[in-house]
Amino acid sequence: MSDPMPNDPIAHYRVVHQTRYIYQSVVTLSQQYLHMSPRSFCYQDVLSHEVQIEPGPAESSDSADYFGNSTTSITITVPHQELLVHAEFTVALRPRHSLAAIGNASPWETVRDELQQFQAGSVLEPMHFLYTSPHVVCSTNLAEYALISFVPGRPHLDAALDLTKRIYEDFAFDGEATEISTPLEQVLTSRRGVCQDFAQLMIGCLRSLGLPARYVSGYILTHPPAGQPRLIGADASHAWVSVFCPELGWVDFDPTNGCLVQHEHITLGWGRDFSDVTPMRGIVLGGGKHGLQVNVTVSISE
Length: 302
Hints:
about 20% helix; alpha+beta; C8orf32 fold; 14 strands; Immunoglobulin-like
């Protein structure tokens, strides 16, 4: 297995992610678990990172979850009706595999069969991303949709790219069509959803064929219309798919945009599905109903 490891990064980005909860009544205790710190790996170096929380937590600890993602656990004991979490960081991205490189992968059936036979050593880690998970339930329907791309003998990653493009063409982006709990079968039937749905749909398709795939949470640089300035806070979190290839390692695909991931995707973390890398989850005492405001800005860093 080999990954390109050039010395020089090809892009620098700055991300600001601000989450604000506004509660109907006073919260007397809040305990939260955060996935808001980017991770360094072969394609990304974290240059700076800071998380500010208001009101300030009485307890705070940084750690890593099972998948190696950076996490922060906080406890706030000051009574409050607003909670603000402001994360800001800069990263340097390195080149990934090209379209030409992924065309040389082994036939997908060979990859499937090898992974089933050798569940140890270098392929042990991908096994975590082969089976049903809380938001990705494997099914015959998902396998049938995938098999249109995964014809016999087709190179593994070439077929994955074709599936990526088909999801992009077949499904409509609709922020009102789904919720976090919407089953994949409903997404497959309605052909509507958001990036989280499309990522989990593609993962379900691949796992239903016996191929490992993981959910990647992060951000993407967006481009304003020609002649218009970039709007501060108008971006959003993003999600895509990482496919395991024995020859090349993990290769990322973005079904929401129908493309191979290159140099405009900033990785926050990865897991089996959205539930493993939820940006912020926890419990509160009090509060009643609440409102949520999320503002994200992704920009090129000099």
